[in-house]
Design a protein that fits this description.
135 residues; 434 Repressor (Amino-terminal Domain); 2 domains; 7 helices; elongated; DNA binding
Length: 135
């Protein structure tokens, strides 16, 4: 019987969650302070002791219940909900502001700051000239 057809194959669930989080076995192993081979063995195990499962869940940033209740179908349904939003284009939410307007605001702010700096430098030069004339 393959691991894909066993609904409670904890190791396979750990593997799929790790893959969905874009994490390599080496990274998970390093987070747990164990070897990559040990991670491979865990992912091939149908059951994992509770203490180890708690450590793995913490390293993956999920709860133990999330691992135990994980299913491919639920994960697919979860990610498909993002595509059902009417303001969603290519998986990204539509901006509520015009990015070019924001850019122009930044340009104007920089221009004002530059003008203040320039005025400050003029004031400094004027002050230094007065000091030189007094000597």
């Amino acid at each position: 019987m393959s691991t894909l057809t066993k609904p409670n194959h904890i190791g396979r669930k750990i593997s799929r969650i790790r893959e969905l989080r874009d994490m390599k076995q080496e990274a998970l192993a390093q987070a747990l302070g164990i070897s990559q081979q040990t991670i491979s063995a865990i992912e091939n195990s149908e059951s994992v002791e509770e203490e180890r499962l708690i450590e793995v869940a913490k390293a993956l940033g999920v709860t133990v219940e999330a691992i135990k209740n994980f299913s491919e179908e639920a994960a697919i349904n979860y990610f498909n909900t993002f595509n059902e939003s009417p303001n969603n284009y290519f998986g990204l939410n539509h901006c509520t502001f015009n990015p070019l307007d924001k850019l122009m605001e930044t340009v104007e702010e920089n221009k004002k700051l530059y003008e203040r700096l320039l005025q400050s430098e003029k004031d400094k030069i004027e002050y230094l000239e007065k000091l030189l004339q007094q000597k």
